[in-house]
Amino acid sequence: MRYWMAALLSAGVAAAHAQDTVLAQRGLADLTLEQLANIIVTSPSRRNEPLSRSPASVYVITGEDIRRSGATSLPEALRLAPNLQVARVDSSQYAISARGFNSTIANKLLVLIDGRAVYTPLFAGTFWDAQDLLLEDIERIEVISGPGGTLWGANAVNGVINVISRSAASTQGTYATLGAGTGEQQAAARHGDRIDGGHYRLYAKSVRRDNTWLPGGEPIRDQADRAQAGFRADWRRASDGFTLQGDLYSAEIDQEPRARDLDGANLLARWSRALAGGGSLQVQGYFDRTHRRHPETFEEDLDTYDLELQHALAPRGRHRLLWGGGMRRHEDSIANSAALAFVPAQRAMNNAHLFVQDEIALGDALDLTLGAKSERNSYTGTELLPSARLAWQAAPELLVWTSLSRVVRAPARIDRDFFVPAEPPFAVAGGPSFRSEVSDIFELGVRAQASARLSFSATAFHHEHQHLRTLSPGPDGPEVANDLEGSTSGVEAWASWRGADWWRIDAGIVRLDQSLTLRPGAVDLQDPSGIGSDPDGWSKLRAAFDLGSSTELDLMLRHYGRLENRDVPSYTALDARVGWHPRRDLELSLALTNLLDESHVEWGPGAEFERGAYLQVRLRLP
Amino acid sequence: MRKLLLALALLVPAAGLAQVLEHEVKAAYVFRFLSFIEWPPGAFATPQAPIAVGVLGAEDVLYEMQNLVQGRTVQGRGVTVQRVRAGEGIAGLHVLFVGTRSVEHVARIGPVQSLLVVSDAPYGLEAGAVVNFVRAEGRVRFEVDLDAAARRGIRVSSRMLAVASHVRQGKP
Fold it and tell me: A377 FRET partner, CA 20 to 30 A, in A331, A370, A578, B27?
């Protein structure tokens, strides 16, 4: 493993030297026209052109969408994706999922921030209360609903969220923002400049969220204070790119009996090179340290080391080959309590993976993509994640596609090593033979740019699940097992209509139908909400208006069906935002939430969210 | 095939193949064009007056250019970049970049003099643009219509024409 990685690295470096690297260096604006004409543009930047060709259910949230939405946190920004179910639980916790199985410890969605998996091996998901970034630095968020195992690995079962930040060159100068409203206050600043052949930015932000209340008026005691700072630096010469970035954060979130503390730091380096002929090579490594202390319950220290390589070969004949591999190591140390225990308290988890994907042009309009990833984890050994995708360009603006994939959700600490309470008899005991959950997934989709003003996407999907997590009677109490199976079927569709240059409407709808049954003879002792809490559908509608040259108005309506196993009624919420630009470098905005009703809950048990307002100033200095 | 590569690029892990984004290259191009355009003497109020660039229907290019021009001068002038909305006055602009989905506005600009119109669409030159971006082999190239330049009273330097993927002159 180490050998091939070293071999590839040196091959890449040699290639880099072979090419003309005399080009300088201070950014694209300093390149000559000839140099610009030779840059290989390897990634899409516009939504309609590349998306219309993508054989998957992908929705892209742009930085501009986020700005106009008035979102103040990453989970709130994710509400913009029609294919995501986002439920706010309290001041800082969210339950987020695609295609069902939603929970605050949802385990079938993979989230990456600039290529760094914000993944906890405790439950194979994301601690949303620990994730934040300066929203204004986000270039786009790619939300893929459906399987992504072949490229992203185990746990990308129902979806992948890729948060991609702007390059440092795109965030030059000084920027400051201040916002205050019911329930939340924020201040943030960023400064970007040149640095020795490249660009950098530094940012810092602080957030305070007030207590929330349960329906009926009982305070939840979840006031949160958070501070975060970070940087990103990019260097680019001709077709080489090098990025170094990192973040540092600390948060204190109130709870019973005493506030929990979260802090962490990460550092990531990425080198990439666009190869002649249309190939590319990328090597990325990061280190991520998190610490989480829930007083009297547990305390966790986690270090993550990750190194990966990816090589897209120049097209050869009818084939386009992409391959890559990587290694990740999690080392955690947990301080257990009488209430719960992870055994062993320290664990090192190694994960190694290798994938290959070939895209074969079967004809002028027909492409077949075959891929497989082999991934080795500490619990179940090697898992294979294959997929096949067929894309038919039926007309220049109409893509019809279908896919067949197998994905697994590999075990986490919570499945194998978790005991409640710490001593028997247990209410929950880790299952020593708990195996990976498996999903076989079929998708059929269309995507079209019907006219210059109207585009749409629709996907029908069917997921066959095996070995889903249950609790069976065990020798010392209920034990984690794999006795549930069944299917999830549904459709997700969205459209964007730009009626005129000054207004646009985006609408999306998702329908879900889940049917799960126990294996014959099996018993499940967990609450029905344990496997997930999903509505039978939701819909989102967004309208954006430019009123004159300096004012913008945005309306966002969403409707969610009821969450039966959490006793959460269906709800409809309308948010609005008015933005005003008295000067080019100044923006004032007022965002209003929950305009339709006095209050609603999105999760149970969870906070009740009332009508709210948030006033924000954004200032750009040269 | 090129489009399939784009699709593939979208499916690889975050920032996978993404290093140089298309709109960044276009913004850099528009900025570099300024050095190779000769406007008539009356186009600027004073010898120090900045070159005014307007961007219509391309927020990403607008944002990129606003960052990129900071602290830079071209032909001894500063550069300003502003958002232009459809139907708004374009008086005082020296350059207008029109995004892909707004290409129909190119034809509606009218005989405005001293304006470099840059478009980003398959039939940009037919619509009346002076410079139009095209994609070729994964790269962003541009084509120039010299008749359109002459009609607007601007001159395009031969150094810029040498890099153009196609130069159009003397329409049939």
Answer: A370
Residues of A in contact with B165 (CB under 8 A): 37
Secondary element (H or E) of residue A424: none
Among candidate residues A462, A386, A463, A474, the one with its CA nearest the CA of residue A425: A474
CA atoms of B153 and B115, how far apart (whole Å): 8
Calculate how close chain A gets to B96, using CA atoms only, in Å. Answer: 16
d(CA A220, CA A423): 29
* pTM of the predicted protein model: 0.77
- Angle of helix B22-33 relative to helix B59-68, nearest 10 degrees, comes to 50
B24 touches chain A (CB under 8 A): yes
Residue B7 — pLDDT band, cuts 50, 70, 90?
very low
Secondary structure in 3-state letters for A170-213: HCCEEEEEEEEECCEEEEEEEEEEEECCEEEEEEEEEEEECCCE
Q: Which of A321, A306, A8, A112 is nearest to B13 (CA)?
A: A112
A27 touches B at CB < 8 Å: yes
Q: Which residue, chain included where needed, has tokens 């969205």? A: A494
In this complex, the residue of B15, B28, B138 whose CB is nearest that of residue A114 is: B15
User: Distance (Å, rounded) from C-alpha B119 to C-alpha B109?
Assistant: 12
Give the model's pLDDT for residue A163. 94
Distance, in Å, from the CA atom of A181 to the CA atom of A210, rounded to the nearest integer, reads: 10
Closest Cα of chain B to A350: distance in Å?
20
Determine which of A32, A45, A306 to mutate to test the interface with B (most B C-beta atoms within 10 Å): A45
| Interface test mutation site (partner B, options A33, A136, A400, max chain B beta carbons within 10 A) | A33
Q: CB A115 to CB B15 under 8 A?
A: yes
Contact between A39 and B25 using a beta-carbon 8 Å cutoff: yes
Residue A354: pLDDT above 60? Answer: yes
| A519 DSSP 8-state letter | P
Cβ atoms B82, B65 nearer than 8 A: no
Say if the Cβ atoms of A45 and B137 lie within 8 Å.
no
> What is A556-577 written as a DSSP string?
EEEEE--BGGGTB--EEEEEEE
Predicted confidence (pLDDT) per residue in A367-390, tens digit: 899 999 999 999 999 999 999 999
Q: Quick check: bond before A344 cis, omega within 30?
A: yes
Question: How does A390-416 read in b/e, with b if 16+ C-beta sit within 10 Å?
Answer: bbbbeeeeebbbbbebbbbbbbbbbbb
If you average pLDDT over every residue of chain B, what do you get? 82
CA distance A7 to chain B (A): 20
The model's confidence at residue B134, banded by pLDDT at 50, 70 and 90, is confident
Residues 189-228 of A with CB under 8 A from B: none
Closest CA to A479 of A426, A555, A551, A438: A426
CB interface of B with A, residues 93-132, below 8 Å:
100-102, 104
Every domain of chain A and the residues it spans = 10-621
Q: What is the CA radius of gyration of chain A?
A: 24
* Secondary structure element (H or E) that encloses residue A475, with its range: none
Nearest residue in chain B measured CA to CA from A168: B67
Mean pLDDT (whole number) for A405-420: 96
Identify all chain B residues contacting A45, using CB atoms and an 8 Å cutoff: 21-24, 60
Q: Kindly determine whether residue A39 and residue B3, on different chains, have CB atoms separated by under 8 Å.
A: no
Answer with the residue of higher pLDDT: A438 or A53: A438
- In chain B, which among 55-94 make CB contacts under 8 A with chain A? 57, 59-60, 63-64, 67-68, 70-72, 82-83, 85-88
Residue pair A69/B83 in contact by the 8 Å Cβ criterion:
no
A294-312 burial code (b ≥16 CB/10 A, e <16): beeebbbbbebebbbbbbb
Superfamily of domain A10-621: TonB-dependent receptor, beta-barrel domain (2.40.170.20)
